Amino acid sequence: MNFDAIADEVGKDFDAECAANPQKAAKVTAAPGVSGPVGGFIAEILKGLRSGGMGVFASLSWLPIVIELIVKYGPQVLKIIKEIIDGWKGGQTPISFAKTL
Question: pTM of this prediction?
């Protein structure tokens, strides 16, 4: 399975989890500009991180940050990719980056 397929599955799984637990999903679905499932945005962001030079496991480790940035910015895929790549290239980890949110 290639990374794009993995990213797509992560997005689908996220949407399924949100559908099964609407209370848990409320924070994400209330984000600015979000009017439905966000799994497609998550998949595109993960693919963008991979294209930006991150390894497979590194990009997946940023998934909680991806979700937090969707909550913060809405579906601004390129902005989120740039912010994470800049942090990653600057030496930040998902944990250190989360402290800046």
Answer: 0.87
